[in-house]
Amino acid sequence: MTEGRIPAERRRRKPTKSGVLLSEDVIVDCALRLVGQHGPDALSVRRLGAALGCDPSALYRYFHNTDDLLLAVADRIIGISMAGFAPETMPWQDGLREMAHRIHRGYREHPRVAALAAYRVTRREHEFRSVEAGIGLMRRAGFGPEDAVRHYSAFVDTVLGHAALDAAHLALPVERRRADDEAWAGTYAEIAADTHPQLAAVRGYLPLMAGSSFEAALELVVAALAAAAPGE
Description:
Elements: H1 24-38, H2 45-52, H3 66-82, H4 92-108, H5 111-117, H6 125-140, H7 145-171, H8 174-183, H9 197-201, H10 214-228
Helix pairs in contact: 1-2, 1-3, 3-4, 3-5, 3-6, 4-6, 4-7, 4-10, 5-7, 6-7, 7-10
């Protein structure tokens, strides 16, 4: 299928057998729910058709394929995360912090989607607004066009990387998460000092590895940007 949005005249206007009137928003809502409940394999036209009570082929009136739908789902998460964000009302450093927390929280709330979509480019309106806001914060810091783009890319990739990592951890079964977290105070505590002297020297602090490093990484990035910023 060709790229681009599905023309309006191809979209279904009649309710499905279950009484649902199909729309892009209805399909995205269903996809978000199914992936959250059943994981990435739920993102198929067959599963979606069954959940919506329609022939799977009807979905192609709204989305070219499941990847097109995935991008719409990712954009929905961006939209939910960034709703009400007003960076112009705060110092640029605080704007970056709030933006980072919004993105991180959005994907932690949808961990199974994060593994599929955190690294994708949605090419949709919510993402456009988010990138506009981020670039605007960099410009307010005094960075020129090229540096604003480079620094925003480094910032948002750091945030998205941590969001995907933390979301993937949350998506693990509880017992696996617990085993991974407890390893830093258990297995690592038993490592011999003669073979791993550096680990032995910091043994008492290794349980810190069990937590997310998102906050620490965010503050390092913001501090580096503040030190490099030419000023408004």
